[in-house]
Amino acid sequence: MDKYLNPLIKKFKENKDAGIAVGQKKYMKSKFEFLGLKTPVRKKILKEHFKTYGKPEKTKMNDYIKFLWNLPEREFQYTAVNLYENIAKQFVEEDISILEYMIENKSWWDSVDSIVRLEKTYFQKFPKLIPVHTERWINSDNFWFQRSALLFQLNFRDKMDKELMFRYILKVNDSDKFFVQKAIGWILRQYSKFNPEEVIEFVNTTKLAPLSKREALKIINK
Fold first, then answer.
1. Which residues of the chain have pLDDT under 70?
2. For residue 58, is it left (φ>0), alpha (ψ between -120 and 50) or beta?
3. Cα–Cα distance for residue pair 96/88, rounded to 1 Å
4. Contact (Cβ atoms closer than 8 angstroms) between residue 101 and residue 134
5. Do 57 and 83 touch, CB atoms closer than 8 A?
6. I need a surface site. Which of 74, 78, 83, 173 has the fewest CB within 10 A?
7. pLDDT in the model for residue 124
8. Cα–Cα separations (whole angstroms), residue 45 to 17, 49, 58, 115, 151
9. What sections of 28-129 are H helices per DSSP?
10. What pLDDT, on the 0 to 100 scale, is given for residue 1?
11. For 214, what's the count of Cα atoms within 13 Å in the CB-facing half-sphere?
């Protein structure tokens, strides 16, 4: 095992808590195993690891991601995302492949939604690639890619490309997938912070699932 990851993995396992793990596994509908590390504990261990071993080398990062992604406990997938967040400014164009690997493998809302933060950094660095990749995602048969295409702008604030957002919503607004319907509402709700009138008009003139409408109007209807 790599000398950089080995002490981190060892430290995680030394701090595992079977009692907490039971609750975490239940919360995630028994889809994944857990060590039982709460987020503050996990992040503290990672912070201490950085102090001792430094940030990961970019040249090894994609191998680290795949190694951690294939470990059974869910905390390792969370940590893979956290590791990349610390060097995400070093993204190169080809790194879209590792983002897609993370979206496609061991997919669930917790991992897919955390990768949104990495997508923001990647696409802000390579804005010309936004339509290249997100168009593939929204047209994919994989609803996790569709969710990613809807949510990659989640943290763009008032810099969101509203035309792209509306167009992508219209491509999948007839989806029966809960996580797609939820994502539609979520991105509209986020946009409503900056342009509530447009969201109201879009919701009133577009056939959306009840869940999407509810989520979209949450802030407006407060």
1. 1
2. alpha
3. 12
4. no
5. no
6. 173
7. 96
8. 14, 6, 21, 21, 29
9. 39-53, 58-69, 74-85, 96-104, 109-125
10. 56
11. 6
What's the Cα-to-Cα distance from 155 to each of 152, 187, 190, rounded to whole Å? 8, 10, 8
Instruction: Give the model's pLDDT for residue 2.
Output: 83
The DSSP output letter for 154 is: T
- What is the pLDDT, as a whole number, of residue 222? 80
> Other CB atoms closer than 10 Å to residue 129's CB: what's the count?
13
Contact 217, 202 (CB under 8 A): no
Angle at the Cα of 117 from the Cα atoms of 59 and 79, rounded to 5 degrees: 60
- Tokens at 35, concatenated: 């060590």
Looking up tokens 């239940």, which residue turns up? 26
| Cβ-Cβ contacts under 8 Å for 36 (sequence gap 6 or more) | 16, 17, 18, 19, 20, 21, 22, 24
The structure tokens listed for 65 are: 């991601």
